[in-house]
Fold each of these.
Amino acid sequence: MAKVSMTVNGTSVSREVEGQTLLVSMLREDLRLTGTHVGCDTSQCGACVVHVNGKAVKSCTMFAVEADGAEVSTIEGQANSDGTLSTIQQAFQEHHGLQCGFCTPGMVMSAAALLKDNPTPTEGEVRAYLDGNICRCTGYHNIVKAIMAASGQDVSAIAAE
């Protein structure tokens, strides 16, 4: 067992975990932050994306002990401090960027990382950035549109696929 301490969504947490405990497991099982999803266990789908020290990370490929001392942000930490949806979450709602919702937390977390690094990405840059996130429902069109809208860009010219 190893003691792991980190700040998750602004709250300091410490837990005793097995060395092989994945960060996604600690978040979901120990901290009950179930918005981070496990979709594939092979780092292919992106449903488990969280931010570790400001960088988008697939939490199914990171051991919890590797995040010791880190700042971790999950989908539960993305809402505004008053509980309203963040700009990105609102854009996903307004532009129908979700269907079943399973991939949505990972998509929102990836979108937040992209817009932090590139505040006004092109449609091509959004599509390229989402390469590691799989959605089996939407065909990505409205997800891309939502991310572009969250960046403050006009999305009326985005053509349907």
Amino acid sequence: MTETVLFDRASLLDPVAGTVTPGRRVLVRGEEVAAVGPDVEAPDGARVVDLAGRTLMPGLIDCHVHVNAHTADLGVLADQSPAYVAVKAAIELREMLHRGFTTVRDPGGADFGIHDAVAEGLIDGPRVHYGGKALSQTGGHADLRPPGRGIRDPHQCCPDIGVVCDGVDGVRKAAREQLRTGAHHVKIMLSGGVASPTDRVDSTQFSIEEIRAIVEEAEAVNRYVAGHAYTARAINRGLAAGVRSIEHGNLLDESSVDLFLEHDAFLVPTLVTYRRMAVEGAAYGLPEGSLRKNTLVLDAGLRALELAHRAGVNLCYGSDLLGGMRRHQLEEFRIRGAVLPAADVIRSATVTAAKLLGEEGRIGRIVPGALADMLVVDGDPLEDLGVLTDPEARLKLVVQGGKVKVDRLER
């Protein structure tokens, strides 16, 4: 039976306008928002929830998580039981939902099994846009073998984050393998990274021909490519070849910004992960070599964020935290809020994120026809982003697809 609920006396946050309007009523019928306005009537039999002036806002969207990465030592994941890793992922997904994230994108690790378990209600968590295994060249960012190991087990059930592929034919096949599982996007490694053992952060990875082949395969099935990249050289190669979103981007420059604007591409900064790895990465398994590489990108991220924001680049919220550091997922709001207006930070985790995911009008806003993904918080996030970073005290209600998942309202 479809339930109808009227949320009364809401201060409604509109991320597009960057405003909070008091005295709104929001009618939810089943999983969707049915009506929004000051005079919406409660139909017969509807349940009425009095929000008493609290802020009602869209559910949050994190565009860069790794639900399988219960440790920062990513190399060990491939040798662990997929059942064990799946249970760990289920626990983390529930925690993400309880932080207010109703949708996440996992560009490396989560697969159709995780997606289906959430979609079928077997586990509580944000709905998952997954990329399956990220594509890496030999010696690239998802090739997590130590230098002395020549053998790699590519079995689908190994719960690691990536697959190694080389050459145009090899990358085409690897992309098709991920896409045939229903992946929402394909993730590729365009440069070296922090958590990988044998590559340099300033390297470029995959040839232009390989990148274009992967983009062609994704576009053939109306999907897109997300590219891990740090330096302007790596970013620019990806954007010119048709990569839709750049993950991290800490070392971009003005030439990169021009390409973002030319291609209407997206940047997904993940600043919190470098802050937390510097503080507690070693405690959660990050190898010494990765800690050294972390210092190369730590301070550059805020400068890149400011440069991209001033130019009007599409910015999306991302955290990219590993292991026990994932509990800091909401701190990205505070970090970005130090240099950007609160309204723009909130847009990155709502409407702009929805645009990247191809879900405009469906998630990221509270409007008729949208999924009823909504949060009730004490305080105004436009005045103080700290409202979003203390869910135990400030997050009072989490509604996902019209269903209440967290209820801390005092009645």
